[in-house]
Design brief:
Blueprint lengths: L2 H14 L4 H13 L1 H18 L9 H12 L5 H6 L1 H38 L4 E6 L9 E6 L4 E6 L8 E8 L7 E6 L5 E3 L7 H6 L1 E8 L14 E7 L3
Antiparallel strand pairs: 1-2, 1-8, 2-3, 3-6, 4-5, 4-7, 7-8
Helix pairs in contact: 1-3, 2-3
Length: about 240
């Protein structure tokens, strides 16, 4: 397999809990220094979250374990040796087979959900959208922008952005047809900011544009233009059918 495939498989096993203690510790350490692995783990957590409640832990009964040990001992191995080697190896393989089956089911479920979403969007107009504002170095969101196209209300929620004394965060709408970014106003670094600012823009431009956050002097840009490059940027996508 290629390296991206290896990373995705490792992320899947990490989320499913099929790694042993040493493997999980190693994966956790790698996650801190490898953004690609961290992003893959977050993607698998999101993908498998709906299946978690439907996948109860299966514990073999004492009778089953007794029969397994008896059959292996008949081949000349002691119970302790079995528990330390063959049974552990067998258990690990079973866990990995189960992980592979759940991964396959999750992928199938994702395709099914995507098909249902597509059919729903073809038959009814969408109203609720969201933009996740991030940088290109980490998958962590810094701001989330929720848009209700029916009411033209925009709700901005800071997630990973910290306070900057004497400065303000300002939200911008970027579209090729605008020429220059259009300010959507200063947004709070704590709590929610709710604005009807989008009402004056064509919704096709809003849907086809990008949202960006810049750090400005307190109160916002003094000349209506960004003072510097965007800190975080994101495109709007449909949140609900």
């Amino acid at each position: 397999m290629s390296e991206p495939d290896d990373i995705d498989a490792l992320a899947g096993e990490y989320v499913l809990g099929t790694l042993d203690a040493a493997e999980r510790a190693e994966a956790a350490a790698r996650r801190l220094r490898e953004p690609a692995l961290d992003a893959a783990i977050l993607a698998w957590e999101h993908r498998l979250a709906p299946l978690d409640a439907d996948t109860p832990e299966i514990v073999p009964s004492p009778a089953v374990w007794s029969r397994i040990l008896t059959r292996i001992e008949a081949q000349g191995a002691s119970t302790q040796d079995v528990q330390d080697t063959r049974v552990i190896d067998l258990t690990r393989r079973l866990k990995r087979w189960r992980a592979a089956a759940i991964m396959a089911g999750a992928i199938a479920a994702s395709f099914a959900a995507a098909f249902v979403w597509r059919e729903q969007t073809l038959t009814s107009p969408a109203e609720n959208f969201v933009a996740v504002l991030q940088d290109d170095k980490t998958p962590v969101p810094y701001f989330i922008v929720e848009i209700d196209l029916k009411s033209h209300l925009m709700t901005v929620h800071p997630i990973g952005a910290g306070r900057q004394p004497g400065k303000s965060y300002e939200l911008w709408l970027i579209h090729d047809g605008f020429g220059e970014p259009k300010s959507l106003g200063v947004v709070a670094d704590q709590g929610f900011t709710v604005k009807p600012t989008l009402a004056k823009y064509d919704m096709a431009a809003v849907n086809g544009g990008r949202f960006a956050i810049t750090l400005e002097p307190q109160g916002g840009s003094p000349d209506g233009k960004p003072s510097g490059p965007p800190l975080w940027i994101g495109k709007m996508f449909q949140a609900t059918p």
